[in-house]
Amino acid sequence: MPVVVEPESQAGPEAELEARFQAVIDRKDRIEPRDWMPDAYRRTLVRQVAQHAHSEIIGMQPEGGWIGRAPSLRRKAILLAKVQDEAGHGLYLYSAAETLGVSRQELTEALISGRQKYSSIFNYPTLSYADMGTIGWLVDGAAICNQVPLCRTSFGPYGRAMIRICKEESFHQRQGYELLTTMMRGTDEQRAMVQESVDRFWWPSLMMFGPPDDESPNTAQSMAWGVKTHTNDELRQRFVDMSVPQAKALGVTLPDPDLVWNEERGAHDFGQPDWAEFWEVVKGNGPCNAQRVAHRKKAWDDGAWVREAALAFAAHDGGTGGAAEDADDTTGKATT
Ligand SMILES: [Fe+2]
Ligand SMILES: [Fe+2]
């Protein structure tokens, strides 16, 4: 429901609107696209949803490069389906961002010009087929920890997109873990390949939750707005506690000498990732940043003729997308 301005309010219309907005959030209800919202809330959401959408699309690249090198038809079909799911996630999220008044074109341009970011994890290379399993297990696993609470985020279209996305992310995590368990039942060489992959991806996976809470200045405001429901460190802890028994069942070692169960806290103590490396990757100096963005830019440029043709077609048939013609066929009914 749109919020109606009451001009007689003594507090002034802006304060009144703000109070109503906060009341919706405090009762854990959703803000919808046509509702009044503070500009800063809109900007925060555009940034977060866009960054999330870009991560899904850029995240197709590290795995997409292995589709043609999958070791069997079964593995190829699984990986292809997984990478296609990520494209779908990107599209739901760009659609959610559009309800905030930004176009997909603007967001893509912001990505390829470097003004908007995507998750730091996708700037690391994939060096073996074991990485397909490790990404599913750890990277999609970390994504699930981040995203399950977002199903209850305050902005309606974002929360609803997340519900669908999370169902698919849990399939991704299982398929990754299943690939690793298969490799661990194989040869010594395959087991070594899995361990080497886990050694490379463990720390970058911990970085996916963002900087420590005391270096995350936007967290408090995002929590007050119901955009975020848990802090970075809370989610990182949850991920570590979830991963330790899974690593044990798999038979791999997590590369952290400080990782130990803390009976008093009922949680694991663990070491800190190399935050200097994290900030370098965020600044664009990770191993694959330039390659990832160049690849995305090429795909966007190569697709220009498709966008132009679609617009020309829409202009030609009056923008009905062919529906009017379908309705005029011999049955006199639309075919869909
Ligand atoms: Fe995804
Ligand atoms: Fe995924």
From TrEMBL:
Family matches, as NCBIfam families: PA_CoA_Oxy1
One Pfam family named in its UniProt record: PaaA_PaaC
Region described as Disordered: 317-336
InterPro entries linked to this entry: Aromatic_CoA_ox/epox (IPR052703), Ferritin-like (IPR012347), Ferritin-like_SF (IPR009078), PaaA (IPR011881), PaaA_PaaC (IPR007814)
Designated name of the protein: 1,2-phenylacetyl-CoA epoxidase subunit PaaA
